[in-house]
Amino acid sequence: MVCGICIRKSPATPAAKLGTRGSGLCKKCLTDVEISSPIQKRTAKLISKYEKQIEELTSQCNIKSDECSMAWSLVESTNQELDRLKMELHQKLVQTDNFEQVLDTQTDQLRKVSQNYENDKKLWAAAISNLERKIKAMKQEQALLSLEAHDCAHAIPDLSKMIEAVRALVAQCDDLKMKYHEEMAKRKKLHNIVQETKGNIRVFCRCRPLSKVETSSGYKCVVDFDGANDGDIGIINGGTAKKTFKFDRVYTPKDDQAEVYADASPLVTSVLDGYNVCIFAYGQTGTGKTFTMEGTERNRGVNYRTLEELFKIAEERKDTVTYNISVSVLEVYNEQIRDLLATSPSSKKLEIKQAGEGSHHVPGIVEAKVEDINEVWDVLQTGSNSRAVGSNNVNEHSSRSHCMLCIMVRAKNLINGDCTRSKLWLVDLAGSERLAKTDAQGDRLKEAQNINRSLSALGDVISALASRSSHIPYRNSKLTHLLQDSLGGDSKALMFVQISPSDNDASETLSSLNFASRVRGIELGPAKKQVDTAELQKVKQMLERSKQEAKLKEESLRKLEENCQNLESKAKGKEQLYKNLQDKVKELESQLDSKTHSQITSEKQQSQLSGKLKEKEEACTALQHKIVELERKLGQQHQSDSVVAALKQTIINNKRLGLI
Ligand code: ADP
Ligand code: MG
């Protein structure tokens, strides 16, 4: 059913021609309809006209239906395409998001890298400018150096002249050295002659003043000082005739400490020259042994003054000789050695050992190294204090023991390299008073025996040395055993015989003077007594002259050596400076190389990074283009969507209107 007019389908016959025989044929159902009236004819005409119109409309409808179905299928396919594009767009958007994220991170990285690069660039720029500055300074320095080198090159002829001069000076110096050694040998020989004429042991007699107690007790002076200037001293003992003794020198009670020391002073020089020396104070208790040796703080004695002079001369000679000085303080009591510098009392007995040819020492004894006189004073005080600790009655004890200060001197001659070791013993001997045999008992007797034994051992040793005996009985007492190195041979000794002026002590005084003149007499001997004083004077003058000459030569030698050393050290200093500067230049050059190298690598890195950045930027712009393209396509899609929607609407409208 198409139009609702035809009810059934007619068999397939040729179409009836309307109007010819009064009937017509329905074009739709091909039914033969009879047309009899004009109305019917008109109706038939209208019908055929409408049928024609219907046919046309139908064909039009068919065409539209076809168009519609085509449009529909187009819409369908467009929708599909749209879906696909949507999908693709979605994917692209996701991709774009990813790309954007990647881009963001890479941009961040890039920013960081650029930041780092900028920082590095700044650092490098600073380093480079710094290096440039350094290079500039170095170049200036180098220029200066080359100028100096130039000067040096110019100075070479002068230098060779100087070298010649130095050589001549060195030759002169050698010559002077030889002469100096010859002079020294002569000096030593002369010194020995003088010493021999004087005797290796010199004895001085010192008499103290009468004490207040003695004066108030009415004691009288029995000492006669009339011949004191010639070394004579007389004792007027009661009614008996005056007894005279001769010494190297006699000190009256008026002579002060400095006067006494003046005679000991040459021995200090001998110690520094490498000789062993002994200085003793001998005498009855209370005659001033300790006063002479130690003295008081205001009125220093031989010990302190000796050390003071040792340091003074050592300082004066420091350009030619270096000295190393150490001190030990001992006490010999009842034939036992006590170390007065030991910080803790040792139960071990101190013994004397032979360390080598002509060298004895006490193992374990403290040897305090002293650098200056203040340190010496401390050491002497320590010794003095610990001496006091050992006894209840200090004076009593000290008078019964030998107090021995040993100064060890090690010297190194800087000119000829000679090394010497010498010792100076400063001994405050125990009281020499003889004890009445009936008085002495127990400990006192033992003490007295020990003192007597050691003092007579000292006399025996000196006696044996003077008579050039093959056996010297050093080992008969600890005192002589300890002094073995410093008694005999080249050693020198000095003894202060202390006496009291009081008539109360006359017999002891006589005994001391007898002992002392025995010591002195043995040494001088009959042959030496006949020394021609004029000859001695000549020898003395010669010695003095040669001393002066040697001193002058020593001085000029020292100056020459100083000059040589100065020249050498200057040349060395310049060489060193030049070397140092060259090293610096090399170091800076290598630093510069490494900096340039690292700068090149960083620049390379930078260019690589900017290449990557460029690539990323290009990829980014391509993506942006794609997005624009896709957005454009999406826009077209929307347009075609709206066209389709419009068409759909038209179709719906047409359908509603019944046009289709
Ligand atoms: P020693 O050590 O021989 O027993 P000291 O040295 O203790 O004798 O002296 C005893 C006393 O005599 C001390 O008071 C000391 O000051 C004094 N004395 C000793 N010699 C002299 C002198 N030359 N001038 C002044 N006083 C002296
Ligand atoms: Mg004393």
What does this entry show, briefly?
This protein is an alpha/beta fold and 660 residues long. The protein has helices at residues 38-198, 212-216, 257-272, 289-293, 302-316, 373-389, 394-399, 442-466, 478-482, 506-529, 533-657; strands at 23-25, 32-34, 201-207, 223-224, 232-235, 243-246, 249-251, 277-283, 321-333, 336-339, 353-356, 359-361, 368-369, 402-413, 419-428, 492-499. Among the domains are: 85-198; 199-341 and 363-531, Kinesin, CATH 3.40.850.10.
Task: Kindly describe this structure.
The protein is α/β, with parallel strands linked by helices. The chain has 11 helices and 16 strands. It binds adenosine-5'-diphosphate (ADP) and magnesium ion. Adenosine-5'-diphosphate binds next to helix 4. This is Kinesin-like protein. GO terms for molecular function: ATP binding; microtubule binding; microtubule motor activity. It holds the Pfam family Kinesin.
Write the layout of secondary structure elements.
Elements: E1 23-25, E2 32-34, H1 38-198, E3 201-207, H2 212-216, E4 223-224, E5 232-235, E6 243-246, E7 249-251, H3 257-272, E8 277-283, H4 289-293, H5 302-316, E9 321-333, E10 336-339, E11 353-356, E12 359-361, E13 368-369, H6 373-389, H7 394-399, E14 402-413, E15 419-428, H8 442-466, H9 478-482, E16 492-499, H10 506-529, H11 533-657
Parallel strand pairs: 3-7, 3-16, 8-15, 8-16
Antiparallel strand pairs: 1-2, 4-5, 5-6, 9-10, 9-13, 9-14, 11-12, 14-15
Helix pairs in contact: 1-11, 3-5, 5-6, 8-10
The structure holds adenosine-5'-diphosphate and magnesium ion.
Adenosine-5'-diphosphate (ADP) is lined by residues 208-209, 283, 285-291, 399, 498.
